[in-house]
Amino acid sequence: MCHILNEKIPICRTCQNEMRPKFIKLKAEGHNATSIYDYNPFIKKLIYQYKGCYDYELNKAFISMFAKEIKLRYSGYVVIPVPSYKKEDEERGFNHVVEIYKNLGLTMLEILEKTEKHKQAISTVNSRHKVYKYLALSAHPDLRKKKVLLVDDVYTTGSTIKSAINLVEKLNPKRIEVLVIAKTKPKQTNTN
Ligand SMILES: [Zn+2]
Questions:
Q1: Cα of 16 to ligand 1 centre, how many Å?
Q2: Of 16, 93, 123, 179, which has the fewest Cβ atoms less than 10 A away?
Q3: How confident is the model at residue 121 (pLDDT cuts 50, 70, 90)?
């Protein structure tokens, strides 16, 4: 896609400018959510190259430019990534969401898991409930004194994030916020 000019940020200035970060404010189940970018064609292509073409080095392309600011903003939060199916991670060789947000240097708890892939295809009526069914807590740490930052790559309908919120709420954290890389507009379709 472009030349590597900087070890920390594997894309050049020109491409960085095309990414156009916006830090869009959203609400998810009443909690504050932020989308760093909108799902513009450049971001879409970059996410595809990273997630779909397994271009691992791009994990640093999305948030490393403002990792310090984000880390400060969410100081004291524990990061909980929205999971992928284990088989997809195994095929890719890495979990794309985990690798992006590791760059923040905040404590990460991988306590959500995704199971039963086929459920996604059937989810028509009462879809939120169905999504809820294929996300699960894989551990129950004591989060009562913690603030939680739920993170994901693409926010489409928000149903996955909402299910993740509902599960994490069971652990009674002090606060939940959400951070995603890109939010699609209603018209835009996505594999998520
Ligand atoms: Zn470039």
A1: 7
A2: 93
A3: very low
CA of 66 to the centre of ligand 1 (A): 18
CA 129 – ligand 1 centroid, Å: 42
Instruction: Tell me how far the alpha carbon of residue 89 lies from the centroid of ligand 1, in angstroms.
Output: 27
CA of 24 to the centre of ligand 1 (A): 24
Is the pLDDT at 168 greater than 70? The verdict is yes
Are 38 and 22 a contacting pair, CB within 8 Å?
yes
pTM recorded for the entire structure: 0.87
Per-residue pLDDT of 129-138, as tens digits, reads: 555 568 999 9
Q: How far is the CA of 82 from the centre of ligand 1 (A)?
A: 29
User: How much distance in Å is there from the Cα of 2 to the middle of ligand 1?
Assistant: 4
Q: For residues 134 and 127, what is the distance between their CA atoms, to the nearest angstrom? A: 11
Q: Domain 13-183 belongs to what topology?
A: Rossmann fold (3.40.50)
Angle between helices 127-134 and 159-169 (to 10 degrees): 60
Asked if 190 and 181 count as a contact pair (C-beta separation under 8 A), the reply is: no
- Percentages helix, strand, coil for the chain (3-state, rounded to 5) are 35, 25, 40
CA 128, CA 40: separation in Å to the nearest integer? 26
Tell me the C-alpha distance between 143 and 79, whole Å: 12
What is the structure's pLDDT at 185? 82
Cα of 13 from ligand 1 centre, angstroms: 7
